[in-house]
Amino acid sequence: MFGLEQWGLAGLFIGSFLAATVLPFSSDALYIAVLLATKEPVSCLILGTAGNWLGGVVTYYMARLVKWEWVEKIFRVSHEKLEKQKPIIDKWGVWVALLSWVPFIGDVFVLALGFYRTPQVGTLLLMLVGKAARFLVWSLLFT
């Protein structure tokens, strides 16, 4: 959590944003800590969701800029492997965005959605729904 819980709601927003990028940490513990400290479930839900969603939006759009050649060269992923994964994203498409909240692998889903250029509006809307649902569950469990 990097001490962000001490910053209260601002720390929650920042931490939730950063956790939705490729930084390796989960915003769940931060969310619960700030929720318990502030006793403001609505503010926590709004700021946690907004930060996490906006971080996902940045990750999604960054991935849209990536070229296949870069992935092959930098990450040593073969063109064949990328072609093999594309039908999975094509089949499930924007619905994969509902899983963007899953700690650690959710960021991989967002990267794939951006890389394979799924429809923007549907992807971003379902990403928002998934992330809000996760924080809503934490709020209901801890208030």
Write the layout of secondary structure elements.
Elements: H1 8-19, H2 28-38, H3 41-65, H4 68-74, H5 79-92, H6 105-115, H7 120-142
Helix pairs in contact: 1-2, 1-3, 2-7, 3-6, 3-7
Describe this protein's structure.
This protein is an all-alpha fold. It contains seven helices and no strands. α1 (8-19) packs parallel to α3 (41-65). It is elongated. The model has no long low-confidence stretch (mean pLDDT 90).
- The percentage helix is over 70%
Query: Order of helices and strands, N to C?
Result: HHHHHHH
Q: Which blocks of ≥5 consecutive residues have pLDDT under 50?
A: none
Number of helical regions: 7
> Care to count the β-strands?
0
Average of per-residue pLDDT values: 90
Distance between the termini: 21 Å
The geometry reads as elongated
Summing up helix and strand content along with how strands pair, one would put the structural category as mainly alpha
User: How large a portion of the residues is in β-strands, by DSSP E?
Assistant: under 5%
Q: Kindly provide the radius of gyration, computed on alpha-carbon positions and rounded to a whole number of angstroms.
A: 16 Å
Q: How would you characterize the largest beta sheet?
A: none
